[in-house]
Amino acid sequence: MSSNQNIHHSGFIGIVGRPNVGKSTLLNSILGEKIAITTPKPQTTRNRIMGIKNLPDGQLIFIDTPGIHEAKNPLNRVMVAEAKAVFSSVDLVMVTIEAPCGFLSEDMVVIETAKASNLPLLLAINKIDLTTESKVKEIIKEAPTLAPFCLIFPVSAITRQGLDALIDGIKNMLPRGPAYFPPDMITDRTERFLVAETIREKIMLHTHEELPYSSAVSVDTFKEDEQKNLLIIAATITVERESQKKIIIGRQGTLLKKIGTDARIELEKFFGTRVYLSLFVRVRHNWTRAEKWIKEFGYKN
Ligand SMILES: Nc1nc2c(ncn2[C@@H]2O[C@H](COP(=O)(O)OP(=O)(O)OP(=O)(O)O)[C@@H](O)[C@H]2O)c(=O)[nH]1
Ligand SMILES: [Mg+2]
Predict the structure, then answer these.
(1) What's the pLDDT score for residue 301?
(2) Which domains does the chain have, with CATH numbers?
(3) Are 2 and 14 in contact (CB under 8 A)?
(4) C-alpha distances in angstroms, 163 versus 133, 141, 154, 160?
(5) Which residues pair with 151 in a beta bridge?
(6) Could you give the angle at the alpha carbon of 70 between the alpha carbons of 141 and 102, nearest 5°?
(7) Do 263 and 243 contact (CB within 8 A), yes or no?
(8) Which of 24, 164, 219, 283 has the most other CB atoms within 10 Å of its CB?
(9) 37: nearest Cα among 148, 208, 197, 236
């Protein structure tokens, strides 16, 4: 289908897949703006996050989701439920897999769930920079035997290979219609959310074992001092046990300082101002198992 200036397409696309296939990295690359945090660890994303791609002849509204997996604790069950809720509010579903692995049984769980939605399905084969052309061809050949994918896109969120074709292909599949959101809007998430997530990303990158999965961040203060070109931010990191609090603070506060510095540098770039960031750590015993806290931290409505 050719596009011309008088035809405008708009609609919602759910990005689903097992953890760590690169859903959030793909969203950021499509937008050309980092709105979703990404780490090499699975189960990074905990919320649905809207990312809006504005084009002269289309508005593509992507919804990034937590990785669908076999959830073992209450927080993870909430994350998976959040991911699956996307099927009730989108026009298209973009199933994402990793090229080097091909279709794993964990991907098949996602594909079966996506099929059950009866929505049109697309397949994004991500991370093609990490494998051979023949492996990608093999996946493209196998895909139609697994689900009725309308379109298949081999892409790399890192090298941007295949992204223009993906954006164009999706645009042409969306119904004709006006933009839903103002053209300067790129996400539905607040600045406070982006700040909390940036800090959480640095925690996930600097910690190991259970700590990345036991941490939550809430922003207590977000104040602009325009005269000084300064943002004053205070945030609290909640962990599950006293022992974790000790680890995250580190010897003489070194780890907390590293997390704070990395987050501050990224936030200064994002907001284009100087940032004064203070971090506090507190313990809420087993918060990932308590519905009250899961709600409090915004992982469930
Ligand atoms: N080489 C390469 N790495 C990629 C690509 N896309 C994502 N990654 C890496 O894969 C890892 C996981 O990326 P994420 O975007 O956090 O994955 P996700 O699917 O959102 O993961 P969850 O939020 O945990 O479900 C990160 O280390 C990314 O840098 C790609 O196209 N090529
Ligand atoms: Mg993610």
Answers:
(1) 80
(2) 9-173 (3.40.50.300), 191-296 (3.30.300.20)
(3) no
(4) 17, 20, 9, 6
(5) 122
(6) 20
(7) no
(8) 24
(9) 197
What is the CB < 6 Å shell around ligand 1?
17, 19-25, 38-40, 42-45, 66-67, 126-127, 129-130, 156-158
With contact defined as beta carbons under 8 Å apart, do 291 and 246 qualify? Answer: no
CB neighbours of residue 20 within 10 Å: 19
Task: Tell me how far the alpha carbon of residue 69 lies from the centroid of ligand 2, in angstroms.
Answer: 13
* Global confidence as pTM: 0.97
Pick the residue whose CA is nearest to atom 27 on ligand 1: 40
What distance in angstroms lies between residue 213's CA and the mean position of ligand 1's atoms? 17
What gap in Å lies between CA 202 and CA 192, rounded to an integer? Answer: 16
- The 3-state secondary structure of 259-277, one letter per residue: HHHHHHHHHHHHHCCEEEE
Say how many Å lie between the CA of residue 1 and the centre of ligand 2: 31
Cross-sheet strand order for the sheet of 216-225 = 216-225, 230-239, 274-283
Burial of 65 (0-12, 13-18, 19+ CB in 10 A): buried
β 58-64/9-16 pair status:
parallel
- The label of the residue with tokens 């313990």 reads 283
Tell me the residue type at 227: Q
- Give 45 Cα–ligand 2 centroid separation in angstroms: 4
75-118 pLDDT, tens digit each: 999 999 999 999 999 999 999 999 999 999 999 999 999 999 99
Joined tokens for residue 23: 């859903």
Q: What is the per-residue DSSP string for 20-32?
A: TSSHHHHHHHHHT
Q: Ligand nearest 43 Cα, by number?
A: 1
pLDDT tens digits for range 152-165: 999 999 999 999 99
